[in-house]
Structure formats: C-alpha cells, structure tokens
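User: Earlier you gave me the apo prediction for this protein. Now I'd like the version with magnesium ion bound, so I can compare the two side by side. Same sequence as before, with the ligand SMILES added.
Assistant: Got it. Here's the input I'm using:
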Amino acid sequence: MNNIDTIISIATPMGTGALSVIRCSGTRVSEIIDTFFKKKLPARQACYLNFKSEERVVDDVIAVYYVAPKSYTGEEMLEIMCHGGPVIYQLIIKEILKLNDCRIAKAGEFTERAFLNNKMSLTEAESICALINAKTEAAALAARESLSGKMTKDLFQIDNVILKTRVQVEALLDFSDEDIETEGIKEISSHIEDCKKEILRILEKLETNKLLFETSKVAVIGKPNTGKSSLTNYLTDEEVSIVNTKAGTTRDVVSKMFSLNGAPVTILDTAGIRETNDLIEKEGKEKALKQAALANITLFLYDARVGIDQEDLEILKNVKQASSNILVIANKIDLIEKDKLDNIIKNDPGILCISIKENINMDILKVKILDCLKLSVRNSSPGVYNIKNIEHLNKAYQEINDIQVNLNELEVIAERLKNSQKHISAVLDNDDEERVLSGIFSNFCIGK
Ligand SMILES: Nc1nc2c(ncn2[C@@H]2O[C@H](COP(=O)(O)OP(=O)(O)OP(=O)(O)O)[C@@H](O)[C@H]2O)c(=O)[nH]1
Ligand SMILES: [Mg+2]
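And here is the structure of the complex with magnesium ion:
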C-alpha cells in the first residue's frame, strides 16, 4: 500500500517533560533527514545530531532512522527525540511540515499503516489500542497478554482439534465396523467436550476483558442518610463525598473513577431523595434520577433498620423507569437484631445485606456489582474491542454445544463441526471486510 503523505506526530504526551519523541513515517523521511541533518543516517542507530533549519540550530536531538519495511509502520520511519518543552517540539514539527507531502498524522494512523502494510493483525492493532487506553493495571496487563497472541494460539489449537474430529466423523461415515465405531464415537465425544470447555474459557476471558476496557458507570441512589456517600468512599478508598449523620448532606452528584477489582468504574454518588420543598434538594433529586438512567447499574440503598417503606418504593418505581439493572442493598445491618436480618434474607433473597461501617459482605457486594456490569456491558452497544470475536465464538460454541454424539447423527455432527470451525476461522482470519477500519483506528491517540 502506497501512501503519498508522510505523517508526522508527537509520540509522547503533550506538555512539558524531559524529552519528546517526534515520529515520521512515509516516503519523505529521507528528505527530512537530508534537509535537517544534512547527512545520511545509519539504520536503527541512535545518532546525536543538530536539527538545523537554514543553518540555525533548532535543537540538539537523538534521531533513529528505520529503513522500510523494518519499522513499526512498514514504511521509512524516523524518530526524533528532542527536548521536552512544547515550544521546541512544535518548532521542529513546523519546520518538517514545510516540506511537500508532510502532514500531521490522524489518530491511530501509524498503527493503521502498520496493519495495512501487514506488520500486524487486526487483533494486535486492537490490543495496542486497548493498551494505550487502559485505565487500570489489570486492563493494561490483559491488553499485553492479548498482544502476545496467546488467544490466537489457543484458537489455532481448537481449530486443529475440530479439524481432526471432522476427519474422524467423515471416516465413520465411510466405514462401518463395530469396533471402530465404538472407539471412534468415544474419541469424538471427548474432543467435542474439550473444545466446548476451551471456547467457553476464552469467551469468559473476553467478556471480563471487555469490562476492563470500558469505563462502566455505577449510580448510588436512595433516601437521605442511607449510606450512599459512605459506600462511595468505601469503594473508591478515598474521601470523595462528605459523610454526616445529618440527612441531606449530599446535594449534587459527586463522581469518581476507581478500579473495582481491576475494572475501571465511575461511581456517581447522588443526593438523598425525599419529598421536600427545598429547591436545591429538589434539583438534586432530579439529577440523581438522571444519573440512574445513564448508569450501567444502579445501587439502591436503604436503611435495614427502617426496611423498605413507602418512600423507598416510590423511589424504586422511578429508578425502574430509568434503569433495568438495579441492585437492592440493605445497609447498616450492624444496627439490627439477628432475627430481623434473617427475616430479610428469608423474605427477599435478592437483597444484599451489608454494613459499610463494620465491613460486612463488602467483598460480596464488589463481586455482585461486577457480575451485573458484565451483563450490562454484554448488552451494551458494542465497543470496538473484541466484539466481533465474542459474537463468532458464541456462535462457534452454540454449534458445538448442540451436538448429540451418537452414530445416527453423524451427518449432523459433521455439519455442526464445520459451522463451528467456520466461526473460529473468522476470528483467526484477519481479512474481515465488515470491520470499519476507520472506526477502530480513530480510538487511538495521535502518534500511534
Ligand atoms: N452504623 C452504621 N452507620 C453507617 C453505615 N453506613 C453509613 N453509616 C452512617 O450513616 C450516616 C449517613 O451516611 P452518609 O454516607 O452520609 O449517607 P448518605 O446516604 O450519603 O446521606 P445523604 O447525602 O444525606 O443523602 C453517617 O453517619 C454514616 O457514618 C453502616 O453500615 N452502619
Ligand atoms: Mg451523601
């Protein structure tokens, strides 16, 4: 693929730092080197040079030249490490842009070129995107693992087993000898079980990963004084909201991003909802309900001492209109008798009983929130990362899961295995025309 334009970008975060890296990729790289360094550069060696424009030294820099196709993009590339101030790198970029066919890169364009020049698969490109955008350590590690191609290797393994099993089924269709049949059926059955387990394992991993790469929203709603701000502070492990014995402490929506067992989550602490003539509180209530509508999950908190009363029911009714993913939580169980607690658990097992103050069932709460988020993220409008793969693997699983292994069904088994393999291949094959490339690469930052 021949790109006319040579793309330029700053590859380190904007702002002041010790160093900035300017990346250039395209056919004009040699001209950039000739014009500003006035000498040829050896490939892949760090060279200490003056970046000169019309005999004036703009900065002393380290430059590395990569000869095509041995570069990130597969094109001629140059990396210039200059001093870190924004004025310096802007000066250098301004000089380079004076040359013909040189322009600033669009977001993700370096990686897009790498993909188009067969330097990496789409899965790898997506993993790099996920790595750059990772908000938590767990997300970065998951992206790195994906980049290492482990999933692809595992899928090739499954693909192999399915192929082997298909050959076995065909053999059984052609020969009829009782001994061969019994042994053959046993083996086919065991292979199918292995594949089912493996596909399911990879699927679960992808779904967990999806949670890591999207920042989910969790709204906390309830009457005043039920412990919403205490919960927010507990989960974020910070003093995000004011906690007070007085009802009506939180007036506005307070939001904070944190890592919930590795998944990036933004929590929205809201004003306690009650009938009031106070205009500020009224506005707070409206805002609270709006947040519930925007969130992936709403945590509805009530005071276990009071139980769910008429006011709670009214709020729940409103929340249900805005959101379908609600976790009902009874807080302050440290203040109630054991009998009363047993009653709540018996009468409504769906309610989670906690005490923020005494740290009772708080780990269970975290896991429950994550489970609800997984559901909501699964149903949410698909992001870029791995959605297609999840769809194909789900279909591959369905095909194989419906198989009844017995001798009279051999033709159906052959057909189902073939279909299942088709979906696995779709994940392994990178020539997926349906992907809207620009949609994927626009999620990158400029400079990658
Ligand atoms: N005993 C006990 N007290 C709690 C618990 N959780 C919160 N509290 C107390 O309940 C009071 C109210 O807590 P907040 O977190 O401010 O409640 P809120 O729902 O944010 O209240 P508003 O902002 O007024 O709507 C504080 O005094 C907390 O210390 C708990 O599990 N047990
Ligand atoms: Mg509060």
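For your comparison, keep in mind: The radius of gyration is 29 Å.
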